[in-house]
Amino acid sequence: MNRRKLILWYLLTFVIVNCTMAQDYDLLIKGGAVTDVKNGISDQKLDIAVADGKIARVAENIPANMAKTVIDANGLIVTPGLIDIHGHVFWGTQPHSAYSNGMNSVAPDGFTFRSGVTTIVDAGSSGWRNFLEFKEQTVDHSKTRVLAFLNIVGSGMKGGVIEQNVNDMDPKLTALMAKRYDDIIVGIKLAHYSGHEWEPTERAVEAGNQAEIPVMIDFGGARPALSLETLFLEKLRPGDIFTHAYASLGSRGRVVNDQHKVEPFVFEAQKRGIIFDVGHGGGSFAFEQAVPAMQQGFLPNSISTDLHIGSMNGGMKDMLNIMSKFLNMNMSLERVIECSTWNPAQYIKHSELGHLSEGAIADIAILRLREGDFGFIDTKGLRMSGNQRLECEVTIRDGKVVYDLNGLASPDWDE
Fold first, then answer.
1. Does the predicted model carry a pTM greater than 0.85?
2. Dihedral-angle region of residue 360 (phi above 0 means left; psi in -120 to 50 means alpha; beta otherwise)
């Protein structure tokens, strides 16, 4: 090799090495409209750099040559990864098992990332008797972060008479399992019990007291319905969660009465610290409840899907469809994002999630807000028109791109 070629080789090597060293970040999201409620950021054009699965930097105009992969998010919304605190993902094939290792639940990874969800909380599909099976079968093998409310019924949500067995509602054993796996179990769930007795609610709350975690309540039903006022003001504690907040069922109390007014005790309960969760589901969200509630200032604290086979192809569809419904009921985009990120993170006591602080886990959703003529359906099959709809472009979990609708994180094939 002659002297000139040797010098050129050294120069080229120097440039390559220094350019590689300059790439401090694995991923850089540039120019998106960032909303991060925890850090007081709302619709602000910022860049987000990711390294080693963490948020490395949030700032204006981070140089693109500092990252291995750059995503152009201009015109898009950048939020923390969405948190869905009510789903059913203990999927299996056991006969007569409903949501508890049965065919009513769904595998989480098929339904989360495509709607910007990076964390889903299973809402009581398992109880203390079969939680370990749920953990080994679903939690440990999902790319989605899966957490859980533990059912007060030891066998979980197997449906029918099994969920009516008060003798299988053991606060001590439920709390022991919750404390043993407190990195996964975030609360206690009561669901589907039909009857006028308060004992199931009281046992669930007792388990919550022993484990020092919140309770999520889904009344199964009774005729006449049990008193929501008693539930909110006497039975539940601040921080406990009432899901299916906008349901309209004859077997359960409703937050909006027959005169289309929000019951005064509902506002009192929310002020007291009761958490009102959407929990849309296949039968638990009606515009006749939600629209007047929103008009009168009764907004949800958290937005969730109640994902299962009976809801995913109906009016619910996915997390972004529900968020879009609330946008079209005049809830601000910032509040919609808050109810889908930072609020639920606090309610389940996982404050490491739901924000974009430097050093935080790099769970990120990049969304597009479309304008047009759209239709939204409730669980009674009734339609509401709207002019806004959220769609997911990219989902990032632990710093890795796990969903990319239009290839924003991918190089062109012919370059």
1. yes
2. beta
